[in-house]
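Sync notes, pocket subgroup
Present: LS, DG
LS reminded everyone that the earlier model was apo-only. Rerun requested with adenosine-5'-diphosphate included. Inputs:
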Amino acid sequence: MTHPVVLTLNAGSSSLKFGLYAIDGAPVEMAMGLIEAIGRQPRLKAEFGGAAPAVTRDLAAAEAADHASALDTALGLLRAQFPQAQATAVGHRVVHGGPGFDAPVVVDDAVMAELKRLSPFAPLHQPHNIAGIEAAQAAFPDALQVACFDTAFHRRHPKVNDVFALPREYYDKGVRRYGFHGLSYDYISGELGRIAPLLHDGRVIVAHLGNGASMCALQNGRSIASTMGFTALDGLPMGTRTGQIDPGVIFYLVQQEGLSIDEVRQLFYTKSGLLGLSGLSNDMRTLEAAGTQEANEAIDYFVFRIRRELGGLAAALGGLDALVFCGGIGENSRLIRERVCEGMGWLGIELDRGRNTENATVISTDLSRARILVIPTNEELVIARAAKGFLDAAV
Ligand code: ADP
């Protein structure tokens, strides 16, 4: 007997995150895993809920030489654990949906061609997402392949937040402010609707603070502004990315320092942010523990930019009813949450230190005009729900 399931895939540049969901009713996670350092010295981590002990092991190079072989390895593991499971749909995280995709979509030949056409918008990510879809098509020729976009949630934001002040022809060519982390914001918006419907309908700022970091202003649960722009490089400083930077710096680096455009790209994406400023690490835990001047300055800059964006997004919303923290740092770092909220009484935010230390869901004081919440995000579940939605519609 077979048991229909949804598989979710999130293919990064050298990683593959995979999830397996039971879909008898609303999707329920059965397994979640990650293969890192694909093509180098791959490692595997996987959890199976209560069904079996977690697995962590180094892989042989051939077990994850590329995304296709990494998927084979992941599937081998899942099949051994859940022999009856049969993937009837595979949901994919796709970084860029361009101006056109404002919702998940079933991948057919035309969609695939469009995803490839959009690759230049996200050259470091989109090709890996496409490789993931192709590998899944080969492994599950009869399953629905569903693409879920990081940009889609923002596509209906107001035009004023969609444009750059460039000649109009570039807007028409797709040079727009897209915004990313949309699957995370979609999840948080849904959770707010479930646990605090009044807040959901109000003015909310979500700070997704992980290795990648951005913030989004939600009104009635919809994105009206966010900190990321044309690429996932803009806005807040991140683990290794610059965040907002004067584009004049690029001209200077190329013309005066002799860097090639590829070198500037490498610098901005992989050597900057917390890593660049601290000279130590992209990992917030390491920086919090380090206590060196450089590490502290990196934290100071991270916090400063979050607070600036908080003010800016609150202005875009015309006030603030709730601030939500999520992502690895937002969900776990008491220090960053405390420092972001410090002295923000003018915005109606008052942190309860005790609740913050306990990592409670609501960490504002009872008198705080705006609520402060910590909500663990779940991008994979958003993908699984979308895939299940298409399966239900096909019945
Ligand atoms: P990604 O964007 O890659 O999904 P995550 O959302 O997993 O990243 O976030 C990773 C970040 O979260 C790292 O900087 C890590 O140090 C930070 N983090 C995780 N746990 C803690 C903690 N207890 N205290 C501070 N930072 C933490």
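DG: Residues 210-212, 239, 283-285, 288, 327-329, 332-333 surround adenosine-5'-diphosphate (CB under 6 Å).
LS: Residues 329 and 349 are 19 Å apart (CA to CA).
Action: DG to write up.
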